[in-house]
Amino acid sequence: MPYFDAASSVPLHPVARQALVAALDEGWADPARLHREGRRARMLLDAARQTAAEAVGCRPDELTFTPSGTQALHTGVAGAVAGRRRAGRHLVVSAVEHSAVLHAAAAHEADGGTVAEVAVGRTGAVDPGAFAAALTEGTALACLQSANHEVGTEQPVAGVAEACRAAGVPLLVDAAQSLAWDAVDGPWSLLAGSAHKWGGPPGVGLLVVRKGTRFAPPGPSDERESGRAPGFGNLPAVVAAAASLRAVRAEAAAEAARLRALVDRVRTRVPELVGDVEVVGDPVHRLPHVVTFSCLYVDGEALLHALDRAGFSVSSGSSCTSSTLTPSHVLRAMGVLSEGNVRVSLPPGAREEDVERFLAELPGAVASVRAQLGAPASAPGAPADVRADGGPDASEASEASEASEASEDAEEDALTVDALGTLCPVPVIELAKVIGEVPVGGVVTVLADDEAARLDIPAWCAMRGHTYLGAGPDGTSYRIRRAA
Amino acid sequence: MPYFDAASSVPLHPVARQALVAALDEGWADPARLHREGRRARMLLDAARQTAAEAVGCRPDELTFTPSGTQALHTGVAGAVAGRRRAGRHLVVSAVEHSAVLHAAAAHEADGGTVAEVAVGRTGAVDPGAFAAALTEGTALACLQSANHEVGTEQPVAGVAEACRAAGVPLLVDAAQSLAWDAVDGPWSLLAGSAHKWGGPPGVGLLVVRKGTRFAPPGPSDERESGRAPGFGNLPAVVAAAASLRAVRAEAAAEAARLRALVDRVRTRVPELVGDVEVVGDPVHRLPHVVTFSCLYVDGEALLHALDRAGFSVSSGSSCTSSTLTPSHVLRAMGVLSEGNVRVSLPPGAREEDVERFLAELPGAVASVRAQLGAPASAPGAPADVRADGGPDASEASEASEASEASEDAEEDALTVDALGTLCPVPVIELAKVIGEVPVGGVVTVLADDEAARLDIPAWCAMRGHTYLGAGPDGTSYRIRRAA
């Protein structure tokens, strides 16, 4: 039963398992105690810190173990912002950071600070120049992920780190998705990681604070882990985390090359096998093991269940698969289709034959979901797919939106579709069904109150070549001009 | 090699080990995911929560798993105080709470709140009436441990919880030391625990927030664990924690009776075997497995090392064994001797013959440390020891201190000992050496700048029957009147 959701969590690496079980016997005591059990625990902790620091490329005394990657990010943001309070209270983040960073940013804002989100292009990457321009006077901290967790796009971290250094602003790098593969280049100041993403056990994160970085840990004081991670340490898991990081790094180059080839195959084949698909994320500057695509006229949750029944575990950024009813903020920031979204993230050791079987099963799974929803017919390999690799669609849509202002009065050939109260992907399906009923140049207005429509209707227009004229002032109507 | 430091951390219970290893294979995925690995993880998490809730005596939806007991306490205090902000910003804690509670209280104070510490008697217990009297208008939260971690004294939690309910103030109970033995009685509102204290793995704490308790979690938002514990959960450890809590509870009554008898033996025999010893903590209302005593004229760290060489792992609240240079706040609040302090805490399964061997080794270990320090001779079973069970020494010392005001001028038979720059237990040793050089009624002034002297000189006076006249205004001189 192939598990293709490595970006969520990876099964324990054999080295992690072995180290964890051994450390249960050796590392259960309090490393702050003077007795032999305490000294033994201290030695294990020191050795684990040394190992992890070597893998990260930092000094051991710069690295603390936290209970999770999320807590490393929360503490990293709060501590760096508090430490730089005199410099200002402005925080700069990319729009596609992990929710842990965005939640920390929201807490900073609630506390009276200000936050700027740097936009990304259609591939999901920030522009280093735009990021540098956002480092205004009073910026206490900047945050940028090493690679995106949903679409796999690598960020230009080294360049952004240089720009931050030039501006005198510390950069916090969320390296959760990439630390299994390599250390992070560039003069960053803080870095966070999460062991269960690299095959270590859950319950262990890393927070690195470079010497010379001002840092004031938030919350009640605690003498452990340089005051940056309160609570009795999770030593057996820490030992396992460090040992497995070293182990996965030893295998990283070969495994990355192997998985990259498998992902390339998925990127190429999926649009050939399934119609109306948008493969998203940078095709070159990306994590070796992640590929994400969205399928028009597909309910993401239904597709996940269909794939699950076929034996494949994947995840989705579609709104219908989460509790929030809003599509993934990453897909939204990229301006790409969110409906029928599937992320395939291959764990180390993923087998070629399982990937082939996935490619064989996917068309039937998509077709069955589309049939249930009464979606329009889709032909594989439709011209729209070529835009998936980060074409100029987003800017086109933006121009189209401006153009709409000038053409408000030419609506004699108009039609309105009421999709109020329906959820993704129904509004887009209803639109697709009627677009042929207006003449070329005619306008369809879709009434829809599902959050995803705001993203998916423009994305559909870009894929189909129609002109998106923009949303109504109340955000529950969308106008589309038929192109051909 | 007997490990007698169970109150710090207990080796993994066999059931915890078994459950943890099994859950490494079954419980590594994200329980929020829809695929089969996620659903399996969710089932394990739900079952663990049900099991833990049964042991605590709460509803499963009242219980969240945190990364540590410390984080449960930090979040519990901050969340309850924030939730009750309208009621006021006053926090009431006992003076002998775990440092995690006192650090949370200090953070509350730094944030503009107020804190009152309820004093304890010589046994280490709060008086329920005094605690109730401290619940003044504007009290947002009260905190009381179920039992003390350093001296084993049980607190009158049920009565204090009733008083809190009557006053409309939520009570947070730190049950870290007692949860292995039993659920906590009384109408408490919040409760915290720590798995590695009951034989579960490190990396798991419990925070229980009763329905109807106002609670606003601190820090950045996170959808997991009711928003009370951000970060990817440590599921294998959570499963092991819950399974082991159920397992230790099944054995608790029999094991408690057995350990209680061993501790009673230590309490009785130590003063018979070693001179100038004060056994501290309540002799009856106490944890079954903890006994603490302090030895005059002994360097706690040296004694710990001597016992470690003899094969026994214990801990100490003496200042010379910690990094802070101040003696344990618990011993200080109790007003008992802090020098040469030893805490023996027996893990489940501790063997009678090991306890006997400890009793056989202890006198030699103490004697060797005293000899190194050139301490006065001590005779076992000295009368001072009978005061150890909570006699009126503390109030006597206080009266003596008041009496000192009236006798400032009768100092013709006086002597000054300069112990400035020396550390515990040297100032007390120097005092003991010269007390015979002044006549009965004569006064010795000790100059000492070690923090521990403030506690140990009055305690020595109480043990020896001399009159403590008080400290000088700058806190580096102490006056003692020879009694006999």
Automatic annotation (TrEMBL), chains A, B:
Keywords: Aminotransferase, Transferase. Belongs to the class-V pyridoxal-phosphate-dependent aminotransferase family. NifS/IscS subfamily. It catalyses: (sulfur carrier)-H + L-cysteine = (sulfur carrier)-SH + L-alanine. This is Aminotransferase class V-fold PLP-dependent enzyme. Its cofactor is pyridoxal 5'-phosphate. It holds the Pfam family Aminotran_5. Residues 393-404 have a biased composition (Low complexity). CDD domains: SirA_YedF_YeeD. Residues 417-441 form the UPF0033 domain. Residues 376-413 are annotated as: Disordered. GO terms for molecular function: transaminase activity.
